Each structure stands twice: as C-alpha cells, then as structure tokens.
Amino acid sequence: MVGGVCVSFVLWNPAWETGIDSIDEQHRQMLAQIEGLLVAIHDHHPGERLPGLLAFLADYVETHFSNEENQMRGSNYPGLEGHRAIHDHMRAQVEHLLEGYRQKPEVMTEEVVDFLTDWLIGHINDHDLPMARHLLRFEAKASADAPKGLAAG
Known about the structure:
Blueprint: H1 21-42, H2 46-74, H3 80-103, H4 109-145
Helix pairs in contact: 1-2, 1-4, 2-3, 3-4
C-alpha cells in the first residue's frame, strides 16, 4: 500500500496461461510470492519477506517441477529430458539462493528478484507454454481415441 492506495507491481499476463489449470494456478502462486517480495522491497522491509519466500521456493521447485515432469512423462513429451535438465538447473539455483541467504541475508534480495523474474517470464514463455501445447494435444487425442460407450440397441 502506498499512500493508502494499493499498488500492484506485477500483474498476471493472460499470455502466460498454459490452459492447464493446475500449472496455471501454481504459476499464479509464484507471481503472488514475487508481488509480496516487491511490496516488501518498496516498503523497505525485504528481510521480513525473504525467509518465507525462500521456504516457499524450496517447496515449489519440488512440487511444481515434479507435477510438470510427471505430466510430461505420461504424455511421452519429446522435450522431457531437456525440460527436466532446466528444472534441475533451477533447483540448483534455488539451493544456491538458500545457501547465499544463510551466509549473507542482507545481499540476497536483488539476486532473488532477478531469479524470480527470469523464471516467471522466461521459463513460462520459453518452456512451459510449448510443453503445455503438447500436453493439451495429447489429452485431446487420448479423449478422441477413448472407446465410446456401447450403443443402445
């Protein structure tokens, strides 16, 4: 809140919609975490928000990435290995952020903001949207190929 007025630093972009509710909801949760950190930075209290955000991130990379990887595996996504390698790199980055925070919490805010911004925009646009298109095509084909009920006769 700035001067009694709510200010939003980051707005959900409909172009980030994958069409897969569970993934979109998780992406929105990430956006809310980024928004909370940016508000705390604006209010000059990022240190109050950073520990909770980093704990959220540690859980998120396991939950969200595992969810995506399971869906990719189940649909025989041809880009699974590459996407998983990107996830593994991001998992390592989150671990680096956690370790950096443990050692020097006062200098971590900018690094966390840069990581989250790149993740939210870059990863969704470059990797999750193409994956989601594959998952939706796979689901549509599976539905179309499913045996129909016995005709009444």
